């Protein structure tokens, strides 16, 4: 049997983790809810960079590293790539396909926070769906704006920001209600791909609202890459059975 270390934190990763037995390890950064119903070992916290991860692979006799982290977790993916090379352990990755703009979409692509805030300047009621990053900027909100920030954890807002702690999947009906009640005039999103959070893009399209889209980071190429969790699970069957 090949012992597997699964780097997760996404719904796809959890789907894979539910198929792993007690000899395998599911690793989480610890920023979200930690599952308590898995048969595999659950490890929470960092490794100490690529060097620490390489030591862990060696110490725990890991035979396969699987990177199923978020498409924007670029540093973790880079560390996984470097550690796998240093420890001579193969690395597979789940690379969720990005969303593609459709007819009627008004996507405004940005690369960083500075470009994002510049693109946001003409609007007054943005919906942020970037996770925790906007929380560090709540004291920088321009006077003419009121932010709606959706992330996984509860967090205090202020006079110009409402924080929604919510976890997908989100429905089109639910997003329509949120957009109407909050008078959203622009959406800020990562191009995460998948179905769980795509409804916001459909509602933005219906309402002819712009979407400020953060470009995906470049991720390293590994031995095997998969675009669907089901395909990765199929490939893992001979290793986890």
Q: Can you describe this structure?
A:
The chain is an alpha/beta fold and 241 residues long. The protein folds into 2 domains: 118 residues, NAD(P)-binding Rossmann-like Domain (Rossmann fold); 108 residues, Rossmann fold. Helix content is 29%, strand content 21%. It contains 7 helices and 12 strands. A 6-stranded parallel beta sheet has the order 3-2-1-4-5-12, with helices on both faces. Helix 3 links the parallel strand 4 and strand 5. Helix 1 runs parallel beside helix 7. It is elongated and about 60 Å long. The relative contact order is 0.18. The model has no long low-confidence stretch (mean pLDDT 94).
Task: Provide the fold topology.
Layout: E1 4-7, H1 11-17, E2 25-28, E3 41-44, H2 49-59, E4 64-67, H3 74-87, E5 91-94, E6 107-110, H4 113-120, E7 126-129, E8 147-151, E9 161-165, H5 172-182, E10 186-190, H6 199-206, E11 211-214, E12 224-226, H7 229-240
Parallel strand pairs: 1-2, 1-4, 2-3, 4-5, 5-12, 6-11, 7-8, 7-10, 8-9, 10-11
Helix pairs in contact: 1-7, 2-3, 5-6
